[in-house]
Amino acid sequence: QVQLVESGGGLAQPGGSLRLSCAASGQGFSNYIVGWFRQAPGKAREFVGAMSGNTMMTYYSNDVRGRFLVSRDNGKNTAWLQMNSLKPEDTAVYYCAADSSDFASMVRTKRFRSWGQGTQVTVAS
């Protein structure tokens, strides 16, 4: 599987914005679905959103739809999570993930085989 490294986490104010980056190494990045997850202390890991490799299909959780956007540049082997209208409940460690499965299967299972190390996002005044 590809190697993934997240960056861009930090502190943001409620209502503010933050953009996370996910840099991938290895071949065939355009064939991988990129997903974003988050995990707050004491809570289960939560699916945030994902984008397919070449067709650029997207799928978002209800909690972030309309506020967060997943994008990617296959030539740069990079994906992003643009987070807007941030809320304190968005505070979590955010992870990017990649998998070569078809998009419909991913929507059903939320399974990803490759994971980054995570980056902390804190939303507070």
Would you give an account of this structure?
The chain has 125 residues and is mainly beta. Helix content is 6%, strand content 47%. The chain has one helix at 103-109, and strands at 3-7, 10-12, 18-25, 33-39, 46-51, 58-60, 68-73, 78-83, 92-99, 114-115, 119-123. The strands form two sheets. Strands 2, 4, 5, 6, 9, 10 and 11 form a seven-stranded mixed β-sheet that branches. Strands 1-3-8-7 form a four-stranded antiparallel β-sheet, with no helix packed on it. The longest helix has 7 residues, at 103-109.
Layout of secondary structure:
Elements lengths: L2 E5 L2 E3 L5 E8 L7 E7 L6 E6 L6 E3 L7 E6 L4 E6 L8 E8 L3 H7 L4 E2 L3 E5 L2
Parallel strand pairs: 2-11
Antiparallel strand pairs: 1-3, 3-8, 4-5, 4-9, 5-6, 7-8, 9-10, 9-11
